[in-house]
Task: structure prediction
Amino acid sequence: MGQRIGILAIQGDFEAHARVLRALGAEVVAVRHDFELEGLDALILPGGESTTIAKGLERLGLYEPIEAFAASGKRVLGTCAGAVLLAREVENHPVRSLGLLDIVAVRNAYGTQVDSFEALADETAPGLEGLRCVFIRAPRLRAPGAGVEILASVDGWPVAVRQKNVTAVTFHPELTPDTRVHEWLLGDRVA
Result:
C-alpha cells in the first residue's frame, strides 16, 4: 500500500481529493479527530467554506494537533479555503487560521460563486508548466514572507506557494486531470 494521506473532512469536497490520491496509489484517511492524524504521511486541508471549517477545527480541537503535525515536518497542502486556514493572517471577514504559512490570505478576493473561472498559470516553477487552475470563490495571496517560495501565479498574483513542508494553492487541483499538486504531496515531484 502507498502512503497514508489524511484529508480534513469537516466540510468541502474532500472526496474529490480522495479519488485523485487513490488513483495515485495512496491510502486515504478522513480526518475529523486528532487521533486520526497518527501515522499519516501528509495532510490536505481542502477547499470549502473557510468560516465553517474554522469553526469545525475549533469545535473538534484540531488547531493544535494540526500545528504539531506540520511542525513535525510532515507535508501539508491547503487548497482554496485550506490556503486561507494556513495563512499567518486572513483579511475580508477574518477567521482563525493556523499561521503555518508566512502569507496573507484575502478571502473571496475574486468574487462570489458566479465569478468562478479557470486560467492557466502564467508563471510557474519548473515542473508546473501549463498548470490549469480552477478558481471558485478563491482567496488571493499577498505579502509573502522571505521564506515563502512562489510556485505559480496568475495575472501576477501568487496562486501556489510553499514554505518548507507547507504548500497552499488558491485553486482546486482536484477538479482537473492534472495530478502534479497531489504528486508533490506524495513526494513524487519537487514542485
Remarks:
- The domain at 4-185 is CATH 3.40.50.880 (Rossmann fold).
